[in-house]
Design brief:
566 residues; mainly beta; Jelly Rolls; Methylamine Dehydrogenase, Chain H; 3 domains; 10-stranded antiparallel beta sheet
Length: 566
Amino acid sequence: MASVSGSLISRIYGNFAGVDFTNNNVAFNRSPDSLNMWKNYKNSIGKHIETRPDVEKILTTSETVFGIFFYEIRNENHMIVHAGTKLYDCYNGNQTQIYSGMNPRKSQSFIFANIFYIKDGLNYLEYDGETCSEVQGYVPTTTISKAPTGEGTTYEDVNLLTPKRKNSFLADGNSKIYKLDANSLISIDAVYINDELQNENSYTKDLANGRVVFNTAPTIPDTDGKDNVIIEFTTNSPANADKIKKCTLLSVFDNRVFFSGNQDYPNVIFHSSLDNPRYVSDLDFYNEGLDLSPVKALIPANNALWVCKKSSQANTTIFYHNPTTDAEYGTIYPSTHSSISTGCATTGLNFKDDIIFFSERGMEAITGDITTEQVLAHRSSLVDNRLLNEQEYENMLLCEWEGYLLVFCGNKVYVADSEQRFSYNHHFEYEWYYWELSITPKFVTEKNGILYLGTTDGIYTLTKNNPEINSYWTTCEDEFNYPQYQKTTNKKGCCLDVFGDEVKVLARIDNEQFEEIGDYENIKGYVVSRIKKKKWKSIQIKISSDTSFGLEKVTLEAFVGSYIKR
């Protein structure tokens, strides 16, 4: 075998892909230690990595921000802010309080028929741009074609969101007593005969027995068989609304709103009627498995609603619901147990058609659809060593932004890049970056490409370019393919394709402390660093700045020397 001593080896670190915290052999294009770097695909088309934008404050609040939402009213964009126990409409520099009594926890919202709806685990509210109030539940007609004695045909289900109902009667011209389909009533709210509202003096209310006694018997209808007496009343069941109000999760799927996360019904999901978020039938609910392991995430994807539960001894954790037509009940959403038994520890979402959730092992993805066997694929192997040790792991926040999935654990952010994937054990995984913020978000959302972060003192956006934050990229611990030989750097053989106002270049050998090699200013294209390191086994380069910088490539040359001596 020919001797390699004296050979000159060139190493190029480029086409950067992200971090690798596995402590294994790190690829040349990944970093074992990087901070606040990313690829801005809008500017660089992925050619280089650069310092992320910094946060800047756009709104000050006296209480913690638990929700940031956007609502267009009369062609004008309003920001709805849930701060502390209050709800504000922020528009044109003004903050108008529209509700007090909010639950001080993360809230969720949706817009239907240009009405803004919000839930916080205590309230279910609606706002039309002028008035914010509790959702006024649709009043169902529970029985039709009723005889005065009470017999009739069941028509609509009870609405959990209101204790009110209607009964529709066919008058016989003789009966004065009309029996409703409930007893122990709170009130009789309205009585109509032939579409005319009746004066309360024309009848007597028997609330205990659920009856209305007319002074004069209503006449038979003008049209044969057409109900002509309608009675609206309030039942003694106001607690039913808490089944929905206490839910902390919601998702819009198939033109219905699905609710879950009620601690009193931890394994139950409820859903509204078609195109009507004010109507939740008392029969439209599903138990997710037989155990009481709580639902952690609702994820609409692949023509189904996926329900992710926390791990349990029953090993029934991932369910899905797809629309099915029933001859009697119309569209229903039966619960089907998937073939996956790994539970959801935190939350999940649909990340560019990748159904992901976070287990006790990290980020998982559900592959396969409702017609095939579902398979679990891991997505976060490169960052699990740090991610799983975060104190706020179980309270993480997720947000999709600029093609990235941002995973917030306190002020730490793990950034999954949808543009960069690699194959591993017959499945793909994401490349990741790692950030640390100067603030600790309590709520995050994205609108029109802008990332909004709610904190204890206001709202910030990640929009400050040319930031003054510490960021760096460290190359892998490189042995230049010859771990058994000593190496010596070519003192003119370190070239960096870099730009920035102030950039430091550091180097270390054999895992010793980093030493500064050069401090450069106003770099427009490249710099040549004179690294004078001898008789080393491995070497690393660190490029760092306290202002914004970008890095495309690092070239390093070294001569191979003699065998390493012990």
